[in-house]
Amino acid sequence: MSLVLNREQLSDYLVEVFPQVEKDFVIDSLDENSITMRLKVGDRHLRPGGTVSGPSMFGLADVSVYAMILALKGRQSLAVTTGCSMDFMRKPDGANDMIARCSLLKLGKTLAVGDVLMFSEGSVKPVARATMTYSLPPAGSAAAAFG
């Protein structure tokens, strides 16, 4: 499947519909098979002990899969998260940004499933892995016309 939105168009759209995304998340790279996103780690993302919080990592995984769906489906897609499974494997470094590498395992008419590996910038060892499931609105529905 080819991209409907390029990196710049996707970034602009995310800021338009979710302005809060701009201060926290950046698209590092995008192609038809994957997206790499960055969480700009700040004090608001840390929990005691200087580690990145679980909710912050969930947010990174969630926005990564959502962005990949939008890149392939376009501005018309109002996907909603219906499931998440996360494994936390090691302590993330709160002094560095978090990097997420996301690919879609399935992109159907009504369901999308994405896989996300998250790393502390500069490390090759993943700190977390998430599998996210999204419900996609039926074609022609009011929800599909969002945007």
UniProtKB/TrEMBL annotation:
InterPro entries associated with the record: HotDog_dom_sf, Thioestr_dom
Domain of life per record: Bacteria
CDD domains xref list: PaaI_thioesterase
Pfam families: 4HBT (PF03061)
UniProt-listed SUPFAM superfamilies: Thioesterase/thiol ester dehydrase-isomerase
TM helices/strands, residue ranges: none
MF terms (GO), sorted A to Z: thiolester hydrolase activity
Domain Thioesterase: 49-124
The name this protein goes by in its record: Putative domain 1
Organism: Ruegeria atlantica
Lineage, top ranks: Bacteria, Pseudomonadati, Pseudomonadota, Alphaproteobacteria, Rhodobacterales
